[in-house]
Each structure stands twice: as C-alpha cells, then as structure tokens.
Amino acid sequence: MAGLELLSDQGYRLDGRKASELRKVQARMSVFAQADGSAYLEQGNTKALAVVYGPHETRGSRSKSLHDRAVINCQYSMATFSTAERKRRPHGDRKSSEMSLHLKQTFEAAVLTELYPRSQIDIYVKILQADGGNYSACVNAATLALVDAGIPMRDYVCACTAGFVEDTPLADLCHAEESGGGTALALALLPRSGNIALLQMDARLHQDHLDALIEAAMTACKGVSKVLDGVVRQHLEEVSVLTRD
Amino acid sequence: QVPGKTWKDCDGIMLKSKTFVKKTRAGGVLKIVREHYLRDDIWCGSEVCKECKDEAPVLQEDACIESNLCSYPHYLIPDTNVVLHQIDILEDPLIRNVIILQTVLQEIRHRSAPAYKRIKDAIHEKEKHFYMFTNEHHRETFIEREPGESANDRNDRAIRVAAKWYADHLAKKTNGGSLKVVLLTDDRANKEKAEQYGLIVYRCEEYIKSLIGNPELVDRLALQPDDQNEITGSKLLFPEHLPLSRIQSGIKNGVLLQGTFHANRDNYLEGTVFINREGEDINEVLLQGLQNLNRAVHQDVVAVELFPKERWVAPSSVVLQDDSPNDEDAEEDETENKLNPKSYISEAVILKPTGRVVGIIKRNWRPYCGMLSQSMIKEATRHLFTPADRRIPRIRIETRQAANLAGQRIMVAIDGWPKNSRYPNGHFVKNLGTAGDKETETEVLLLEHDVPHLPFSPAVLSFLPKMPWSITEEDLKVRADLRHLGVCSVDPPGCTDIDDALHCRELENGNLEVGVHIADVSHFIRPGNALDQEAASRGTTVYLCGKRIDMVPELLSSNLCSLRSNVERLAFSCIWEMNHNAEIIKTHFTKSVINSKASLTYAEAQMRIDDTTMNDDITKSLRGLNRLAKILKGRRTEKGALTLSSPEVRFHMDSETHDPIDLQTKELKETNSMVEEFMLLANISVAQKIYDEFSECALLRKHPSPPPSNYDILIKAAKSRDLNIHIDSAKALADSLNNATVENFPYFNTLLRILATRCMMQAVYFCSGMDSDFHHYGLASPIYTHFITHQEVRCYAQRASVAFHTQLFFKNKGIINEEGFILFVRKNAIIILIPKFGIKGTVFFDNKDKPSPHLIFDSEGPTLKVEEHMFRMFDKVKVTISLDASNIQHQRIRMALIEPVIPGVSVPVPESEPEAKKPKLDC
C-alpha cells in the first residue's frame, strides 16, 4: 500500500492545510478552581491540560531550594486514552522524563524566577489526546496556566513544530505528518524579543535547510502567540464582567 | 495565503474530523482520528471565472473540441476507472481541459502506481491544460460518507457533487453561458445517478467516438466489458497448490512427478524440473508460463503434472527478462505467445515433456542478495526487490527506509507467495553496503554462492596444533624420511598454500625415481572433530580475485600444511620408478617427511629449465620432470585426451587500491602442464591403488562420453567453415579438433574448442561398487580419482568475481572498441567473445524502445539474418564495449555492434578514450 502523500502538488497537506498554516488552536483558562492557575488547550486534535501551583515554599528537602530564585518543577504525563492504542503509561518513563526536563528548561527561561527566591513553582501538564506536537501543546497550555496563576513572565512562551517535506517547511505537524518520515523541529519562542527558549530536533537535516525551517517555526510561534493573547484578553474580559457583579 | 494564519475565527464550520478504524499488522484494531479542514480558497482554475483569485488559471476559456455530442466548449471530468483504463487516451495531446478531481487522483494512487505517475505527468504538462481540483478540501464539494454507503459509492458521489458544483459555478460565471462540464464514466449505475442529478454524462467510448476528425483516438481506447467496471484486488493469478497428502498419493501412483525446479536464467517464464527418481524414463520436465510455473522458486522441490503429448513444446530460445513496470498491483497478461511466437516454431524442433507445477513439496528459500527497485510513488512503503540472481523472481517487500536503501546491496528473505500475488512477499534482512563497492560486491558473491566466509570459531581453532610445532621422534618412526631429496614446488605467483611438491632423481640402476608429495593434512585434522566438520562444510578454498577464503585455518593452509621451502613438513608421497620412456616400473605410496628445497613459480621453473648455465640438483630434477611430462602428455593425447580451452582472465591489480589496472588472458607455460601431468599421473595411480585395495568402495571420478547429439552444434559450426568433426571416439574428436584450422583465422581453433567444452558431460564422483564403467572421457584414462586437485578446482564464485572485476576494469577504462567473434547465434541476439579480454557479451537485436529490425532465424545454420546481413557462428565483428551503469543493480558490460554496419542496429564508432588504447603494463 502506498504511503501518505504529505504535500500535494497543489500545495495542500493531508488535512487540507497549506504549508504554513497552523491547526485550529482553542483554549480556556481557569478550568480548575483548586489550583492557582490552570488552562485547557486544543491544537487541532492534540489536547492538553495544564495546572500550576505556586509559588510556594519548597516541599521536601530544603537543599533543593535556591537562594536567589524559584525552582520550577515540571511534570508531564499522557493519558492512557490519549493515543489510538490504549496503553498504560507509568510515571517517570524515559520519554516523559525527557519531556518534563524540556518543559522545565523552557519555563526557567521565561518565568521571572528571581522574584521568588527559596520558593517553588509546580507545573503539571497532561496530554489528553495526542495528535502530534505534544510538546508545543504543553508549552502553550502551561503558558496560559502561568498567566492564570498570575506568575510574572518575560513574555508568552509560544511553541510550535515545523517539519520539512519536499523541500518545503510545514508548520505545526499533525501525527500523520510527524510519523510519515522527514525531519521535525520543535521550537519555543518568546515572540516579542524573538528569543528562543528551546529548540529541539532529533532527525537529520541538511544544514542549508535549517534556517528556512527555523524561520517557519518562528512564524508559526508568532501565530500561536496571537491566539494565546486573544484567549487571555477574552478571559480577562469575562472575569472582569463576573467580578463587577 | 497568510503566513501563520489561524483558524480561530472560522468557528468550527470548516473543521471536520475524519474517523476510521484500521487494522494493525499485529491484528489489533486502531481508531484513527484525523482532522479535515475545508477551505474557501480553492479556485476552480478556469480562465472564465473572475471570482476565483487564481493567478494562473489552467483551464482555457474556449475549450473547444469538435464533437457530435458536445457542440459547446466544455471541460471533462473523468472518473477513476476512466483515468485508470483510458490513460492512453487522456495522454493524447488532443485531449485538453480536463479536471482531475482529488478523489480520483487518490483512488488511482492506491490502485496503480504507473497510472498515477502518468496522470501526474499530464497534470504538470502546461500544454495539456489539466487541472487538479482539490475537491475533498473544498467547503462546498466535500461530502461525508453516509451510513451504509461503501467507500466506492461515496467516492462516486463525491465526483458527482464536484461535477455538479463545477457545472453550477461555471454557469453562474458565464451567466448561463455555454461553458459546460462533461462527466465521463463507464459505470452504468454512476451514469444513471449523475443523469438524475442533472449532469451531462457520457461513457468514455461514446465520447471519444463522437469526436470529429480524430478516428485514430478510437484505436487507443482500452477495450472493456461493459459490466466489469471494478477490478477486484483479489483476482487469482495462480492455481492453488495441492495439499501434501494428495501430492504424496499422486507421486505414489505415478500421476505426479517429483523433482527439483530450476528456473531459466535467461527467460523468467520458463523453467525445468529435474526428476530425481531412478528408473523414470522422463528425467526433465519443461515448464512454460507463469501459471504453469505456479510460484515455484529456483531450487524448490516440486510436484509436477505432465501434459498430454500434444501440448508438449520446445524450449524457447528467446531471452526474456522480467522488467515490467515496477508496480506491485499491475496484473499484466503475460501470455504464452510472448514466450513462443508461433511463427518461430518449425518442424525440426524437438518437443520436450512439458507440464505444470501442482504443488510444492519443499521450499528451498534462502536470503537473497540484490537491490531495491523503488516504487514510483515516493512515499510508498511497498517496493519490489530485484535479486542479483536472475533465476529468482522479484520480491515485494515493505520498508519505510526505501530512500536509504536505494543504491545499496541488500538481503531479503521470502516469507510466502499468496496465490493472488504476482510476486512473492518478503522482508528486508540486512544491508550489505553500497552497490559497486568492492567489499560489498565480494560479500554478495560469497553469499550468493553460499560460501561460508565467516572467521573460524574458537571450537574449530581449538583443534589446531599448538605452536611452536615440530616433527617428533614418533612421527619419524612411522614415516619415510625423504628430507634429503631435492623436492621443489611449482605454483602460481603469490601462492601461500603450497599443497603439492615434486622431485625426480636418477637411480643407480639407470631408472628415474619421480615423487609427488602432497601435504598430509590428515595428520592435523582428525576425522569427526569440529575442524574436520567445518572444513567439510566449506568444501574448498575459494579463490577470488585478490582474496582467498580458506577451507582450513590459515595456520594449517599457509604454514603447517604448506610445503614451503627449507622447512620440514609432513607429506603423503606417491613415488614411481620409471624408465626413460616414462613407463612405470614400480609404484609405492608412503607417509613421509620432506624438506622442500625451493618453492618456485611457473615462470621461475621455466627459466631454470631454459637456462643452460644452471646445473644444480633442483634444475636437473625439473628438466627430468619436464621431459617425462612431455612424454606422458604425448601418450595421453595419443589415447584421445582432449585439450579444451576456456578463456581465463588475469588481472593486474593496483597494489594500493586493489583496482584492476589491466587484464589479460592467462597464458599457459610448459611448466603448468608439467605439474598438471604429474598430478594426473598421481591421481590415476592412486585410483588404481584404492580400487585394488577397496574394490567395492573406492571413491573414483568418471567422465561419461557425451551422447552424439550433444555435438550437433559443434559439427554445424565446423561445417559452416567446410570442416568435418568426427565424434566417433575421443581420439577422432581430438584429431579433428587439431586439424580444424582456417587460414587467416588463428583464433578459430580456440573458438571451436570453447564450443567443444559446451558439448561435454559433467564429470562425477562415484563409488566403484556401484558402477562398472570407470572411463574418464576427457582425460582418456580408464580410471581416475581426485587425490590431488591442485588449484584447478574452480568455483563459480570465482567466475563471478572475475566478472565483477572485469566490470570494474571497464568502468575505469571507459569505452573500448574491440574485435570479437560470434560464439552463438540466438533468435534475437548474438553472443560475442572478445579474445583479448576473454569476456563474453550479448548483442540484442530486438529492442523494446524502438521497432525491432527484421529478423530471420534459422536453427539449421544456425544463422540469424538481420535486415540484409546474415550472422553466422564465428563471424568476426567489431563491437564497442562499455559498462552499462544505468541500472546499478545489474551493472553489466554492454556491447554494441559497430561492424558490420546495419542501419538502425549498429552504432557509430564512439571516440575511444586514448588511455584505453595503451593500457599500462606493470605487474
């Protein structure tokens, strides 16, 4: 059986998008009352839930706390029902540990941790449905949850993936595109400054194409940032209406 | 197109989700959910339309083609089956302004890779004005599958909806104007529904026939029965195999025959089953056609059913290679007439027992080496694998790393061959390396010829003697001490495994004592141990160009069992007392200890013999041996021993890169034949001895005399030069071969001898108790065995290695023009031998790409008349030789005819590169 044609001659992708188009991003903030901050985000069929606690005193051993800034603690997990095949996912497997570490690095770059010395900020993210770009969905959801928790950040952290198919960079890959071979790159961007918080690429890519691919991913991240900004503003509007009453 | 555009504001209308279930390879069921975006910005692609913001519309405004049915300008929308079957029509330059729907294109992609490729090429061609409309993502043309609707029905409906949309869209744009769309479908149900839906719809045939002034298009219509509009994927290609129980009973009562299947190397539609049962009057069954071969693979043990005599056929002499388009699903009708065009069959051909395979008794599949022929669809995961051995069919494998495997030599194993599949299914085993690479190709050769070439295991090595090794007192007690004799060895240059040595001295009674000494390997390798078993499984040392695969570990082969000079070695000696007429007076055999005084090359030995100033023991011994050898040879020839030749090639290797620099045919020196003569003598003496001692169970070797019919080709060939070959006896044959010379054609005799080799039977080992005829035809000896094989034991792997190095040589040399002789004449080709390089090549006259010239083949001659020129055997021709690297999988030496000049067949003389003319001669 023939494989999938990721990009047609007319420039349409499998799901009908063009190369630089993102999937539909939808989000809600403050989905849980108990947590300090929370958000639910859909990026196409990838659905993520993020919850933030803190800043609070360092739990467990004191030695972990830092005297000049807050510790960021991230935990990533996937629901058993998140993929096509139901699969038990024990905590702390290699993939999710790696993802947790990436998230931690991303947010250490974005959160103004120096405002909260000797304290800790917990970020928990769970993928409810996985359809490619899990990392980006987590980052985007966690950004909204941090905003919801009122933790100061340098900027929104917006993440998006980009792939390279038939010499064309594709923005925001879905699962079929991610697994269909080719190179995928994940990028987390602080859009206003243009600083890169994290850049990850596992597969091989010719050096000549790297700039184009990063450029595509950055454009996509900026697109995401517009959506996130819209979500935050709409949320604020709703909240202020509620509090006025 | 807005970069980073998001779907936030579109609010769900444009987003559909596709859900379907899929079975995984492990058998599980997966639910796959995919997003499906619908868009407003997909343009209709017509020049007429002002609303669609298409920058470069494809479809023309005046899409006129004169037709009885449609007098108005119109666009065509073919459905899937029309594109699939009538692609020839669609490709015609006359047919323009066609809308190919995405639904159609996707279906074609699944069904036929070649058709997909062709229609895509048509879309890319500007002149054709073919437009691909992405209807599946258009907001107004996307439809969802309804409950109970099959995928095919849904697609048909999608095509109708899209056609309707076009019709309405264009009508609006032209204000109800004349531009229309015409749907082409051969599906009756679809046509009816479309008519109800208000579409203009025709059958393809109907439409094409209506075109005015283009009758030639009608000829290109693919014939199609009206009702058969759907190819089912599960069409049975092969008859079912019988169950084993029925095969067994069939064989028992004689209805079926059991044998080993051998595919024909030159014709993939033909094979032979060798019946290996005693007392069967038929020992070969010919099989022709895919159906009759019925999925048998080379070397399988199969059960065959014989056809009645009137269906027997003759083997075809057409060269056919399976190179149909690389499409796993295409089921081409490879009809029998491709195999054996009736016109060729003349009365004279001998019909052979013909049959068909009804069942497989035992598969003999092994991993095969070869290369991947990538599917035409880039993302495809199923590809065809073309084995290096042409007798093995192509194998379909599934791989995601096709792009990486392109150009690599890989190994693939067959998993099975379902009866509805044109090719067997297999899987990727391992990657051997880049094709054309010397290491890789050597590995391929070894694997393909099943040569065990891994390093020896520790278990094997544990049976080696401990070093330092020396001869003990006990050894000397039981062995004859021959260390004082002037023994020497004569071998090819660079030989490290010297297994035999000779001596000759004058005895006091005036007679000569001649000894042949062979390394006593049995002293080191005891029967039954791991070392013995390993050596038995390897069977022989394999000599490749520049590489040797040892049968026993190097310590033995190149040291302890190598009769090197000036070291004491254990040997087994065969010692004759002869008079000066080389008549044997006494023979005796003994285990011995020898000390070789010199290890010489053939050239060195020759020099010593010729140099009159040298008079040491060794040289005298050599002269004596040489003199006796000449007498022995003369006597043997007198008795009718044959001297047959086959061209042998030697390479001069570059010492740094091991690339061949120059190649020359092996020349034989007097000393070669001297060594050979004594080896033969030793073998004959040993054969006689073991037969005397063990008359019931001596292992001997015989060479049966060939049946007279084998010589037909030789006699015909000679007759073409007015020469007679007598085949009444070996002697007569040898004599007539000796006399068969043609003036001004010195190479003729060699050619004739090469041909004679082809007439011979295979020599076989046998046990003396089982047979009464011991005669060795080729050597004209009443009894023979292999006590010593010297290094003349050749392996196919070596031949192939030579072929590969020859290719490497021509790759470096570029194009060479050379003279050659026609060795064989076939129905569609001539086989040419180039004496200078000792290589053979085929010049084909029928070419798929261009019309083949007029060929008349006469099997009597045999002659082949190409246009005006008559080719006969042994004709001198001029060819240009180059390496055909266009298909890296089957890189081969290509020959093309320069002389005689036949218009449309021969090629002009290419500029040969200057370096090719004067090859460096450095050895």
TrEMBL record, chain A:
Pfam families hit by this protein: RNase_PH, RNase_PH_C
GO cellular component terms listed in the entry, alphabetical order: cytoplasmic exosome (RNase complex); nuclear exosome (RNase complex); nucleolus; nucleoplasm
CDD domains noted in UniProt: RNase_PH_RRP41
Exoribonuclease phosphorolytic domain boundaries: 21-152, 155-219
Coiled-coil region(s): none
GO molecular function, one term: RNA binding
GO BP terms in the entry: nuclear mRNA surveillance; poly(A)-dependent snoRNA 3'-end processing; rRNA catabolic process; rRNA processing; U4 snRNA 3'-end processing
Record key words, sorted: Acetylation, Cytoplasm, Exosome, Nucleus, RNA-binding, rRNA processing
Location relative to the cell: Cytoplasm; Nucleus, Nucleolus; Nucleus, Nucleoplasm
Subunit structure: Component of the RNA exosome core complex (Exo-9), composed of EXOSC1, EXOSC2, EXOSC3, EXOSC4, EXOSC5, EXOSC6, EXOSC7, EXOSC8 and EXOSC9; within the complex interacts with EXOSC2, EXOSC7 and EXOSC9. The catalytically inactive RNA exosome core complex (Exo-9) associates with the catalytic subunit EXOSC10/RRP6. Exo-9 may associate with DIS3 to form the nucleolar exosome complex, or DIS3L to form the cytoplasmic exosome complex.
Family the UniProt entry places it in: Belongs to the RNase PH family.
PANTHER family in alphabetical order: EXOSOME COMPLEX COMPONENT (PTHR11953), EXOSOME COMPLEX COMPONENT RRP41 (PTHR11953:SF0)
Protein name: Exosome complex component RRP41
Species the sequence originates in: Cyprinus carpio (Common carp)
UniProtKB/TrEMBL annotation, chain B:
Alphabetized SMART domains for the sequence: PINc, RNB
GO MF annotation, one: 3'-5'-RNA exonuclease activity
GO terms, biological process: CUT catabolic process; nuclear mRNA surveillance of mRNA 3'-end processing; rRNA catabolic process; rRNA processing
Keyword field contains S-adenosyl-L-methionine: no
Region (Disordered): 318-339
Family membership: Belongs to the RNR ribonuclease family.
Protein's UniProt name: Exosome complex exonuclease RRP44
